[in-house]
Fold:
Amino acid sequence: MKLDRAVDAYLRHISIERGLSENTAAAYARDLAVYLNWLASEDIDDSSAVTPEVVARFAATRASIDPPIAASSLARLQSSVRGLHRYLAREGIEPTDPSDRLKPPKLPKTLPKALTIEQVESLLDAAGPAPFTDKGEGGLAVELTAIRDRALLEMLYATGARVSEIIQLDVDDVSHGDVLRVRGKGSKERIVPIGSYARAAVDAYLTRVRPELSRRGRATPKLFLGARGAPLSRQSTWLLIQSAAERAQLTAHVSPHTLRHSFATHLLQGGADVRVVQELLGHASVATTQIYTHVSVDALRDVYATAHPRAR
Structure:
């Protein structure tokens, strides 16, 4: 099969049959475009001409790029290539999988970066006013976007949801009282409780801000809107969090995912069961969640080292 047709068929498969998210499918498409361009440079345009040696040479070429690409990016690229060839073999389009011996690069073990509770509170305060506060400094009316930003950050920290999950929320998704219906990876739904602070912040946003923002653009069911009334984007969310972090004078790198890491870490430090945290985060495997237990163990070591008279 011609490689461009093979890739199109595979992308349809992961989007429709496997139900992967639009963002994930787009990442696969970008990776496979790199793969196809390289194969074209080798005068290979049919899947039958791809051998284990060809796949190994592609992996070696990408690994030797100067400046080098991150190990995580290389691992994702190889995963996309393996997924394509597994699909072709499984569907009987090709007799074998030429990528089955491809070993992914070893990824460095890094612990997720979490903020302290005090840092989270500073970030939230810097984003916008607390619910039911009408005036900012100097008695001036607070901007609409500041109330929205506070609600958005409160939701990210209260639920541990991914930024893509939060910006895809509709107004109806937050109409279930103290719980939130989240659509995660693979279109899987999960129910996550909303704390009183986030609930109050979202209610303030819905009552005082969203109607005005909605009038500025086309009608949309999305919960969080930009200044012109369009659904808020991932990039805008990243920028507003960066701006809040600067105002809070946080020196650590802060992203939407930082609040997700902080959510999980603080729950475990507070005594939550790791499997409960797994469910709240929407992890398919508890092994993914267990990385946060290492963060908590490190915190315990720090306390022990500073508090016990014979720790050193």
Q: What stands out?
A: The chain has 14 helices and two strands. Strands lie at 179-183, 189-193. Residues 10 and 83 are 8 Å apart (CA to CA).
